[in-house]
Design brief:
By secondary structure, this protein is α/β, with parallel strands linked by helices. Helices cover about 40% and strands about 20% of the residues. The protein has 14 helices and twelve strands. The strands form three sheets. The protein has a six-stranded mixed beta sheet, sandwiched between helices. The chain has a three-stranded mixed beta sheet with strand order 3-9-8, with helices on both faces. A three-stranded antiparallel beta sheet has the order 11-10-12. Strand 6, helix 7 and strand 7 form a beta-alpha-beta unit. The longest helix has 30 residues. The radius of gyration is 23 Å and the shape is flat.
Length: about 375
């Protein structure tokens, strides 16, 4: 899973990226300090893995991972190349979802590119640039396909109809993600990699003084705006998250407790990203390795097996499945089997979050 972190310059985007990835990306009080995108691979926090590791006395624990990409601050006119905008927008096309960081705090020492703090104006600047870039792409494809549609090709006819539908929406300030699509349209849409079709999370970046009272006036406006878009919102303080990550693992829980922070920014982002993209994890466990595997909700057993190796999917016979909670309650796999908690599942079994699975296959 690849998540792009975007926002105007100086909204706390790179600070947040540093905090969640510990990558040490440059963060400075001037626009465009990020030119090439910084990339960080982050382990997905999952306490179940440590418990299984102890249970199996495993040699290795491998969590699921997310790739975060810190994309340079966009500005008005980005879709026409302002502030290296075209280059930055091309980086966004490559991600699965967008995290849009919005400044929701006042600080006279931190320059705002527009001279004042206004989260809705900032959101609309970014959204407009993404929409304009998509409008240009859709218009070009519509023009090209319309010339060839006389051939009667059903695929081209479907493409023209879809381009007209999306073009009309974008011209009326609607994002492509908010439209409904049938199965055929989804396939065409996937190849386009439209910026406004990507799932979106707004991160309301608050100041240290607003910890414990997260719904300040700015955040409320972001939540109201996001509700109209059916987008998710999480609230955090990027500066505090950066301080948190600088502490040792032993010191972090106490720091969080002192500040009344229940979840770290990374935990909030991972949870929201999984939910947004309809993802979950199944688990495999043994003495050699305990591992979490990320799959789409609704994936059947052979598809989950294929996540481990394509041969597992091709030669799938069956899966031995026990829920994580049942396994822990029973104490080990053998006892879980004795108590009838281990099930034999076939090709039609829909994998559930937290399933501990052992696949049987023959190639």
């Amino acid at each position: 899973m690849k998540i792009g972190v975007v926002g105007l310059p100086n909204v706390g985007k790179s600070t947040l990226f540093n905090a969640i990835t510990e990558a040490g990306a440059e963060s400075a009080n001037y626009p465009f300090c990020t030119i090439e995108p910084n990339v960080g691979i982050v382990d997905v926090p999952d306490p179940r893995l440590d418990v299984l590791g102890e249970l199996y006395h495993t040699q290795k624990i491998v969590p699921a991972s997310i790739e975060f990409v810190d994309i340079a601050g966009l500005v008005a006119g980005a879709s026409h190349g302002e502030g290296l905008g075209n280059k930055f927008l091309s980086h966004i096309r490559e991600v699965d979802a967008i995290v849009h960081v919005v400044r929701c705090f006042d600080d006279p020492n931190i320059i705002h590119v527009s001279g004042s703090v206004d989260p809705i104006r900032d959101i609309e600047v970014i959204n407009l640039e993404l929409a304009l870039a998509d409008l240009e792409q859709v218009s070009k494809k519509l023009e090209k396909d319309a010339k060839l549609v006389k051939t009667g090709d059903k695929g081209l006819i479907a493409s023209v109809n879809l381009m007209q539908k999306i073009k009309s929406a974008l011209e009326n300030n609607q994002m492509a993600r908010n439209l409904s699509y049938d199965e055929d349209e989804e396939k065409i849409l996937k190849n386009l990699q439209l910026l406004t079709a990507k799932p979106l999370i707004y991160v309301a970046n608050i100041g240290e003084d607003d910890l414990g009272k997260e719904d300040n006036g700015y955040v409320k406006k972001v939540k109201e705006y996001a509700q109209k878009e059916n987008a998710k919102v999480i609230t955090l303080c990027a500066k505090i998250e950066e301080e948190l990550i600088s502490l040792s693992p032993d010191e972090r829980p106490l720091f969080k407790e002192e500040l009344g922070i229940k979840e770290s920014g990374l935990e909030k982002l991972v949870s929201a990203s999984y939910d947004l993209l309809g993802l979950m994890s199944f688990l495999t466990a043994g003495e050699k390795e305990v591992r979490a595997w990320t799959i789409k909700k609704g994936t059947k057993a052979p598809g989950a097996a294929g996540k481990i190796h394509s041969d597992f999917e091709k030669g799938f016979i069956k899966a031995e499945v026990v829920s994580y909670n049942d396994l822990i309650e029973c104490g080990n796999f053998v006892k879980a089997k004795e108590k009838g908690k281990v099930r034999i599942e076939g090709k039609d079994y829909v994998v559930q979050d937290g399933d501990v699975m052992l696949f049987r296959f023959n190639v």
